[in-house]
Amino acid sequence: MRRRGHLGSEADRATFRALHQASLASPALREGLTADSADRAIRHLRTLLGTPALALTGTATTLAWDGTGSHHRAQAGALAAMLVAPAGSDHTRDWTRTVEPAQLPCTTGGCPVRAGVISPLVVDGRVVGTVQAFAPTTTAGLIRATEEVAQWVSGQLELAELDASRNRAIEAEVQALRAQISPHFIYNSLGAIASFVRTDPDRARELLLEFADFTRYSFRRHGEFTTLADELRSIERYLLLEQARFGDRLQVTLNIAPEVLPVVVPFLCIQPLVENAVRHGLESSSTVGHLRIVAHDRGHECVVEVEDNGVGEDPEKVRRALAGDAALDSVGLGNVDSRLRATFGDDYGLVVETAPGAGTKVIVRVPKFAPGVSTTPPRKTTP
């Protein structure tokens, strides 16, 4: 038996400890700069710097304090305001400043918070807060270390802003998709329901309930993701309403593998494809329309196919739709394709097989499991 060796030299071990503390602080900072995230990250940041006290601030208020001398907490906000809005030109906003004892009046005997270093947190060219390290005296090493930590924290906050921007973009795409689908579908559905009010009141009532459930799902405001089971349930309601309008002209076949029902997919990623098949593939056809929806289990992936025997489409027009050409009257192809790629990567875009007169098949591939893809938001953990 060989004994496990040490993790290198003392310098190596110090590096590993620093990386470990950074990894512990990172999840909180990736949520943005708030009082809660600052409070969860600050202890690890102070361990990185090894100072008696550390403060994280916004532009004028103290978000979190760790270490001794907490009676100086209110002073940290005032010091931040001095850094963020200095006199002179804007380029001074990137300066790291030292804090002299005169700027930290204190009547507590033996308090180690006598001097400090303030370094800005910069996101997209804007100062959003500061890191403030306090000690009995300032040294060149403390200044450099505080600057490095502030730059690393700024990087994490930049990533948080990118995540937030991505989420806002996805939400905007879903809102656009709702706006594109809703008027057309609502008009046709209410017309179909009205046609049964006198001739078949029971069916009209059932269709109205299905319409209510469908719109409740489509217009929900919570969650970027859903399960394939919920998406297919909404599609079934949609097709019931469309069959009420088309009658025997619309025939539907569903073949769904039970093991893929729990797979998590982007919200409204299959339904627009089904509506596109009905609206563009079958509505213009003079023959009986057949719509086939199949969901396969393919190892680590789920494959969903939406196929119709309708009029088909020009492949060049499909390419333009996938590229997001707003001039085309295509329900959500580009929208769904971009959201799938943003969620799972470019390998998971839509595949469309079509030609004039040959019908259309749209294939969706999604991984069964993907990091960060869940129907429930991640819980915040306390270090």
From TrEMBL:
Annotated keywords: Kinase, Transferase
Gene3D superfamilies: Histidine kinase-like ATPase, C-terminal domain
Domain Histidine kinase/HSP90-like ATPase: 269-368
Entry's Gene Ontology molecular function annotations: kinase activity
Membrane-crossing segments per the record: none
Positions in coiled-coil regions: none
Record Pfam families: HATPase_c, His_kinase
Signal transduction histidine kinase internal region domain ranges (all copies): 172-250
InterPro entries documented for this protein: Bact_2-comp_sensor_kinase, HATPase_C_sf, HATPase_dom, Sig_transdc_His_kin_internal
Signal sequence annotation: none
Protein name: Histidine kinase
Gene source species: Nocardioides bizhenqiangii
